[in-house]
Amino acid sequence: MEDPSESPPPSKRRSIAQAVDVEGPYRLSLSPPSSPWGPILGLSNTAGVLTGVFGTAATRYILQKGSWDDVFKVAVVLYIIGTLVWNFFSTGEKVLD
What we know:
Helix content: over 70%
Distance between the termini: 52 Å
Strand content: under 5%
Largest sheet: none
Protein name: Ascorbate transporter, chloroplastic
Number of strands: 0
Oligomer: single chain
Keywords: Membrane, Transmembrane, Transmembrane helix
Transmembrane segments: 37-59, 71-89
């Protein structure tokens, strides 16, 4: 039996990291051929950082005025809006050359 305190071997760690990183290939497939990672990777990372900053500040503000129920209500509304926007604008057609 393996000792659970030992870390996995490097080959297993690499495959775990590759299995978890699913956004990289997705961004790559959306990027133009001339710059495969540049603008799309930068914009998606910026969006992720901004949501972390503003989400934390908004949660703090909501908790000062209300409760966790209010925080989850805001999250549900944002998920519904995101789903509606995605369903409205998504397409199966090729968008970028």
